[in-house]
Fold this sequence. Notes:
This protein is an alpha/beta fold. It has helices at residues 27-38, 50-62, 77-91, 114-142, 154-157, 163-183, 201-204, 208-217, 226-237, and strands spanning 18-22, 42-47, 66-71, 96-99, 145-150, 188-195, 248-251. The chain is globular. The protein starts with 17 loop residues before the first strand and ends in a 6-residue tail after the last strand.
Amino acid sequence: MPEEPIQCRISTHLDGQVALVTGAARGLGRIIAQTLAAAGAKVACIDINTDALAETISSIRNAGGIAEPLACDVTNGDRVNEVVDEVIGKWGALNILVNNAGITRDNVIVRMKDDQWDAVININLRGTFLFTRAVARPMMKNRQGRIINVASVSGLMGNPGQANYSASKAGVIGLTRTVARELASRNITVNAVAPGFIATDMTAALGEEILQEVRKQIPLGRLGQPQDVADAVLFLASEAASFITGHVLTIDGGLTA
Length: 257
């Protein structure tokens, strides 16, 4: 008898899922929120910039998606807990957390001010910790969850002038791997994406001369697009990545190869 054809079981549909994305007002966060909504998830969009956040919400709703804005300083533990409770209260669950909120305050180490160090560590690392801790209990109770942290290749290889940023993203990677081990028995996966040079407003500010040199260092010879990162997040949030946890997925065109 002929063998039955192999059926493709990979799916990135998120129908019925509830996602929370921090730093959703612009840049990578906005694209990630839009992508998860397009895949069928209800998306809680978190940011401190409420004006820009409104634009994200409008873009999702105009495309037929479901999204709600929630103002939040990711370094405020009490507010973080309130936000998680509000999302679960509204939609009955929280299946996916994307810790994307982050900033840069670049300077060489001998000139770096205390407030530049503290601001980056607080938002990039403390914020990731606070939201991860806040969603852990409800996800454990439901015995299901996906946590995706946005790290950076700067946390893997270092980058001159970014001691604070590199340290924060290296911390996010360490946090990811540890929490992955802690939560795995409850069917919760915890992974990170580590973007390289992505075509955003932040990289555009470097100037074309510097970007030309950057492209020479990237084996694929170009910058990545925000959608490249969003697609990786969608994959890790989906059933297709159900046996992947504690992993750092680099999205860098081969920069760290």
